[in-house]
Amino acid sequence: QVQLVESGGGLVQTGGSLSLSCAASGRTLSSYAMGWFRQAPGKEREVVASLRWRGGAIYYADSVKGRFTASRDDAKNTLYLQMNTLEPEDTAVYYCAAGRISPFQPLAGMGRADFGSWGQGTQVTVSS
User: Fold this and answer.
1) How does DSSP assign the chain, residue by residue?
2) Exposed, middle or buried: residue 99 (CB in 10 Å: 0-12, 13-18, 19+)?
3) Cα 121 to the chain's mean position, in Å?
4) Which pLDDT score, from 0 to 100, does residue 75 have?
5) b/e 39-54 (16+ beta carbons within 10 angstroms → b)
6) Span 66-104, pLDDT tens digits
7) Which distant-in-sequence residues (6+ apart) come within 8 Å of 121 by Cβ?
8) How far apart are CA 86 and CA 56, in angstroms?
9) Cα separation of 92 and 87, whole Å?
10) Are 78 and 11 in contact (CB under 8 A)?
11) 38 near 23, Cβ under 8 Å?
12) Above 90 in pLDDT, residue 27?
C-alpha cells in the first residue's frame, strides 16, 4: 500500500492559481500510475490528471487542459498539480491517488476503481 499525504489547496479568486502537493511513501513507484481526482458536492469523483511515475505522456481531463499541469519529483517522491486560471467550477475536494499500471495500459481509461491508494483530500474553493 502506498501512503499519500496531500498539502496545498485553499481559497482563491476566479482566475487565480493554486498548487497541490502529494508526498508518497511505502512503495517503489516505478510500476504505478498517479492521479489527481476531485469531487464536488453532490457529484461523482472524477479524474483530473494522471501520469505514469516512470514518465511519459500525461492525461488531462478536457475540463482542465491548458490550465492544470501535473508533474512529479522522483527524488522527493512527490506528485504536484499546478492549477492556473481557476474557475468556480473547479471548487472541489482534490485527492491524489496511486494505482498499479501495466506497461501498455492507457492512462485515459483509468478511473477511480483503478487506484487503490488515496490521500486524505484537500479543499480547493474558487470564489466568483
Assistant:
1) --EEEEEE-EEEETT--EEEEEEEESS--TTEEEEEEEE-TTS--EEEEEEETT---EEE-TTTTTTEEEEEETTTTEEEEEE-S--GGG-EEEEEEEEE--TT--GGG--GGG--EE---EEEEEE-
2) buried
3) 10
4) 93
5) eeeeeebebbbbbbbe
6) 999 999 999 999 999 999 999 999 999 999 999 999 888
7) 6, 39, 93, 94, 95
8) 26
9) 11
10) no
11) no
12) no
Instruction: Please give the grid coordinates belonging to residue 8.
Output: 496545498
pLDDT of residue 109: 82
At 113 the pLDDT is: 92
Residue 86 to residues 25, 26, 28, 53, 106: CA-CA distances in angstroms?
A: 29, 32, 33, 26, 28
Question: Mean pLDDT, the chain, as a whole number?
Answer: 95
Helix (H/G/I), strand (E/B), else coil: 89: helix
The DSSP symbol for 113 reads G
Q: What letter would DSSP give residue 52?
A: E
Q: Which amino acid is at 7?
A: S
Contact in structure between 99 and 38 (CB atoms under 8 Å): no
In the block, residue with C-alpha cell 502529494: 22
